[in-house]
Amino acid sequence: MSTVPAFKRLPRAVREQQMLDAAVRVFSRRGFHAASMDEIAEDAGISKPMVYAYLGTKEELFVACLHREGTRMMQAIAGAAAPDLPADERLWRGLRAFFGFVGAHRDGWAVLYRQARGEQPFAGELAAMRARLVEVVAGMLDHALRAEGREIAAVDLEVVAYALVGASESLADWLADHPEADPEKTATRMMNVAWLGAAQLLHGVTWRPPTH
Amino acid sequence: MSTVPAFKRLPRAVREQQMLDAAVRVFSRRGFHAASMDEIAEDAGISKPMVYAYLGTKEELFVACLHREGTRMMQAIAGAAAPDLPADERLWRGLRAFFGFVGAHRDGWAVLYRQARGEQPFAGELAAMRARLVEVVAGMLDHALRAEGREIAAVDLEVVAYALVGASESLADWLADHPEADPEKTATRMMNVAWLGAAQLLHGVTWRPPTH
DNA sequence: GCGTAACCCTACGCACGAGTAGGTATGCTC
DNA sequence: GAGCATACCTACTCGTGCGTAGGGTTACGC
Q1: Looking at chain A from residue 25 to 44, which residues have their Cβ under 8 Å from any Cβ of chain B?
Q2: Whereabouts does the entry annotate DNA binding, in residue ranges (chains A, B) (predicted)?
Q3: How many residue pairs bridge chain A and chain B with CB atoms within 8 Å of each other?
């Protein structure tokens, strides 16, 4: 008997996205280990074997979440920071996009950074993404430096970039925990710390340890 | 029959430290969840019920590790940054002590930051410690500001401090993953990023978002 | 209108690891 | 050297949750 459609039996592509949505929510709420596949399935309005059929084991599912959220974030940033702008403008737009993304996807951020960092199986995945970020930032700095006719050793550049990325991640955490905070304002503050320091470096000013 | 002592039957205080040593090692190697109490016990050269008798459940054990390592770190920093020095000197000494500690206690650092951050039960514990760090840094900045006859809103100060702490943590992670890197040099680099930017802020220079 | 493939379910097996019960040996006090 | 506390062990119980076996139902091609 043909009852109401009962909105079931959706095509695979749709269900996979629903599952990923649910997974991101649950992982972010409980953490990787405390999250159970049963809860994810229930949250997605589907039964467990379906999750296994489509997305594989728990680890694979988590990696899939990581990938989707990470890609979205990188796209948000890349889309905002056009490569033909001056360095400070690029940095500003990149930061604004970044904090905007975190503010809008607090769940995704929690999955991405708070969970993935601790668990060895995913640390590599995460490190690769961070490396791409660092590379982008280092590229900006290097570009600005050459425009000034200066150069810095590649290692130093990378470490500075690493510090900036770290500071941003830290503020992003802060933002995720303060729902009332304004992403734009946070980006401005980060820009103040980052750019004022970086600009000094770009102009050849450096700090040297006291010798005694 | 009195055989060789077989180095057993140690007083509680000693065994507790051995257990904590083992726990820090195993937690840092495996992560909180993947670490088993059996492995910790074995690594400590003792049987599992002893661990339960002395340090309690797995969570309590982890908190104990967190406490010990955290206290050691805070002491290392506090001992180095005497409060009567000028701000830049304090910051420098604090950073040097911090990176020195991380370089020497990579295991402890991994437990502290990589594990504790992700798992909700310990996030609070960790946040409290970080809050103390942020407070110290914010205090330095504030002190330096007043010396210059300036003031900044407390929130901004805290956020800047938060960013600096985050950048340091990030570089500490980097340091923990690069055994060949020199803690002192890392501290110098961090000082460059942190102080050059902060000094600008202290002198009233700020960056403002473009208005268009 | 009938096969076949995609979608979806209920119900289980099974390993792993936290925590404990219950007992033994060794040193310390008096 | 009797009594007692402390250090220590082997050997279990038992919940939890991952992953699967095996079977049902709807759509779609032909």
Answers
A1: 30-34
A2: 36-55
A3: 147
